[in-house]
Amino acid sequence: MKVKCPKCKEKFDIDKNSHDEGDSVECPECGASSIIAVKKGNFHLEPEESKYDKYEEEFLGDEDYEA
Ligand SMILES: [Zn+2]
Predict the structure, then answer these.
(1) If you measure from the C-alpha of residue 33 to the centroid of ligand 1, how many angstroms do you get, rounded to a whole number?
(2) Which helix (H) or strand (E) holds 42?
């Protein structure tokens, strides 16, 4: 199934039989990791890094800036 990379907008194929909602896939063009979401029966990629950004901010807030 064709999906679009949320980062570089490249379209690429992912195998519907070996991937499912919530899986992480890597864009062959830019290498960005994306999470598969399913909308109306179609695969749709969402950027993975937005989650990591939040975790990182919380982590840094506790560890680095309090001392
Ligand atoms: Zn990409």
Answers:
(1) 8
(2) strand 42-47
CA of 2 to the centre of ligand 1 (A): 13
Domains of the chain as residue ranges with CATH: 2-63 (2.20.28)
Query: How far is ligand 1, taken at its centre, from the CA of residue 46, in Å?
Result: 11
Nearest-10 Cα torsion for 12, 1, 41, 29: -10
Q: For residue range 21-64, what is the model confidence (pLDDT) as tens digits?
A: 999 999 999 999 999 999 998 999 999 865 555 555 666 666 66
Measured in degrees and rounded to the nearest 5, phi and psi for residue 24 equal: -100, 130
In 1-67, alpha helices (H)? 49-63
CA angle 26, 47, 61 (to 5 degrees): 115
